[in-house]
Amino acid sequence: MGNKELINEALEARKKSYCPYSGFAVGAALLCEDGTVFRGCNIENAAYSATNCAERTAVFKAVSEGNMKFRAIAIVGGPKEREPEDFCAPCGVCRQVLAEFCDPETFKIVLMNGDGEIREYLLKELLPLGFTGKALEKTR
Questions:
Q1: 118 φ, ψ to 5°?
Q2: What's the whole-number average pLDDT of the chain?
Q3: Is 55 labeled as catalytic in the residue annotation?
Q4: Which of 37, 41, 70, 126 keeps 20 to 30 A from 64, CA to CA?
Q5: pTM of the predicted model, to two decimals?
């Protein structure tokens, strides 16, 4: 699956966003090694800390279905009633969750702005010096 197709999946996921507080709708599409795509949207809560981002929704859906090998994720976001205008990169918490399951050397993060410009990053570019399970190996 190409970047444009993955972006289209994220745009479809964005339509399901529940964002009554921020009005900022985000969709994500997670591409697994086997070609399966899991969609996610942001799901807000009046107690903001209970909110879940689109990226984590997609990852948690995949993991809960037994799929833990990922190639790429596409993310789009912006004001709910308009098409996305700017690039919407994953927050720090989402980057950390991706680092738990994805190879930072090969996992791609694909973003698109309102002009249709697509940018692709490796996880290691967006989370340099990430904290992973390797740091805990000596404690076991």
A1: -110, 130
A2: 96
A3: yes
A4: 126
A5: 0.95
